[in-house]
Task: inverse folding
């Protein structure tokens, strides 16, 4: 076989493999994938009732803090650790469950993790402990299917941000255009968080968004609730 033809075939195969990986990742992080993410607001429901998120500007400020200093950043670190060869899923699962600051937030990540594992079975899911936090389940699947860690991390952060914006759009309420404008404005924040977690270790887990943690706790006794967190 001529070298040129061989090279073309090899490049086509690589492109096909990479394309399949991206397609899988898009499916797993799609709002249509049955993880139940639409039912959780990450405490935003209480924040809206308290009058602290009222428009696109206040939503963007809140999410910037959650992304850079809160649980979403820690989730990105956990995902990266689970994505790497030789990851200790049991230890990661125990740490992730222990590090969650509120009962509803714990249920949020563990319920979504369990739902993700069940839904991902048609693609072949690695053996994971039960319960397992959502970012660990996603990271383990990405690693098992050869999806680049950086791509998985950015996609996860974008999907998490989009889900929280969707909750706010329904709760405030905000228009879809405002929600999309906030998502567009947060792209640089998402990329910055992804870059900042690249060399992070488990010692870097943690945050400083106490208001978000308190919101999650207060949501547990909120009188009227549409969301489970």
Result:
């Amino acid at each position: 076989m001529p070298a040129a033809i061989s090279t073309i075939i090899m490049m086509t195969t690589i492109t096909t493999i990479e394309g399949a990986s991206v397609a899988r990742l898009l499916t797993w992080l799609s709002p249509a994938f049955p993880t139940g993410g639409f039912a959780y607001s990450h405490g935003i429901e209480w924040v809206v009732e308290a009058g602290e998120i009222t428009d696109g500007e206040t939503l963007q400020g809140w999410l910037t803090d959650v992304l850079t200093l809160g649980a979403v950043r820690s989730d990105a670190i956990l995902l990266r650790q689970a994505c790497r060869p030789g990851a200790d899923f049991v230890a990661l699962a125990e740490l992730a469950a222990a590090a969650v600051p509120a009962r509803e937030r714990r249920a949020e990540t563990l319920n979504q993790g369990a739902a993700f594992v069940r839904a991902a079975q048609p693609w072949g899911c690695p053996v994971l402990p039960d319960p397992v936090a959502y970012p660990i389940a996603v990271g383990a699947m990405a690693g098992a299917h050869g999806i680049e860690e950086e791509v998985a991390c950015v996609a996860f952060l974008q999907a998490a941000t989009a889900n929280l914006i969707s909750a706010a759009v329904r709760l405030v309420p905000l228009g879809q255009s405002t929600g999309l404008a906030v998502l567009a404005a947060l792209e640089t924040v998402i990329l910055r968080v992804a870059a900042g977690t690249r060399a992070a270790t488990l010692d870097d887990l943690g945050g400083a968004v106490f208001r978000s943690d308190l919101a999650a706790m207060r949501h547990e006794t909120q009188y009227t609730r549409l969301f489970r967190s």
